[in-house]
Amino acid sequence: MTTADDILDSPAAAFAATGARTALPAASHTPVSVIIPAKNAAAFIGQTIASALTQGDVTEVIVVDDGSTDDTMAIVRAIRDSRLRLMPNDASGVSAARNLGALSARGDWLIFLDADDRLRPAAVTTLLTAAKAAPHAILVYGDYNTIASDGRPIGRRDLLKGRRKPSGDVMERLARGNFIVNGGIMLVRADAFRAAGGFDVSLRYCEDWHCWCRLAALGEFAFVPELLLDYRLHTANTMNAAVRTPQDFFPAVARVFDDPLILARLPASAVPRLRQAAEIHLVTYSATQAVRFGRYRDALAYLGMVGQRSLRAVPRSVIKIALAYLGI
Which of 10, 28, 55, 251 has its CA 20 to 30 A from that of 296? Predict the structure, then answer.
């Protein structure tokens, strides 16, 4: 199990010097492992697994049960497919579950799919095609849309389809804020993920952003402008999101900007500016979530926090909050 103290820079440095520039085999011959951490996910786990198993290029689906007390494990065991594996995690948390799945994965590429989301048809093939076109990329990612509990589309991110996100060396851009958002929209090279040390289990929030930043320190990313995932909004995850505040996310900012591997790839003179940008990004995110749940007074307070850090950042934050109000 990976802990904060287990995240070592020596294997990461070795990978950065060699593996990051090693092209993988052709996409059609590259195994993909889908890792699904699950805790009390009986309502959706069947759909999630089905969305992974119907992907033509997936060679295994690893469900890591994180101490479920409902029918999650029974549902998984009832699915008859030789590619499906079930592992227990003893309620150690989602980051530990993902790390455990990645440790045993046989694929050259990993996808971290949440137990209530679902991959869109041909999502993996789309990502592998993009990876073939960018043979030195260690992470390939796309975009997502949102759906309701019953699977009904509720997002309008299709209006943003075709927009470009960063590719290549994304280190500085990613340090400013997490533009990947969800592990279900990306393929990451298994050897790179392990070299980066996995997810930091000491972080309650934004552990994915910290992990992506460490990966960005090791190699290139590639973006494909396609909606590849249906991200499900339902009672459990929306209640969790509804009560988050900017203070919940600031430990991750401290972790990112105290990480030797990440700092080694950032110009020292740029670190204060990038850290401020990361804080603004997360405060703005908190404001967009507050708007989505009708907490307009909190959203205004968070916008004030943006202004305290940079008045120049306020207009951009206002635009993001307005887009959130429109469901984008």
Answer: 251
How does pLDDT run along the chain (328 residues), one tens digit per residue?
Answer: 444 444 445 577 677 666 555 665 544 456 999 999 999 999 999 999 999 999 989 999 999 999 999 999 999 999 999 999 999 988 789 999 999 999 999 999 999 999 999 999 999 999 999 999 999 999 999 999 888 888 788 766 666 665 679 999 999 999 999 999 899 999 999 999 999 999 999 999 999 999 999 999 999 999 999 999 999 876 665 555 667 899 999 999 999 999 999 999 999 999 999 999 999 999 999 999 888 888 899 999 999 999 999 999 999 999 999 988 887 7
d(C-alpha 92, C-alpha 133), whole Å: 38
CB 213 within 8 A of CB 255: no
Q: What is the 3-state secondary structure (H, E, C) of the chain?
A: CCCHHHCCHHHHHHHHHCHHHCCCCCHHHCCEEEEEEECCCCCCHHHHHHHHHCCCCEEEEEEEECCCCCCHHHHHHHCCCCCEEEEECCCCCHHHHHHHHHHHCCCCEEEECCCCCEECCCHHHHHHHHHHHCCCEEEEEEEEEEECCCCCECCCHHHHCCCCCCCECCHHHHHCCCCCCCHHHEEEEHHHHHHHCCCCCCCCCCHHHHHHHHHHCCCEEEEEEEEEEEEECCHHHHHHHHCCCHHHHHHHHHHHCCCHHHHCCCCHHHHHHHHHHHHHHHHHHHHHHHHHCCCHHHHHHHHHHHHHHCHHHHHHHHHHHHHHHCCC
Spatial separation of the C-alpha atoms in residues 228 and 210, rounded to whole Å: 22
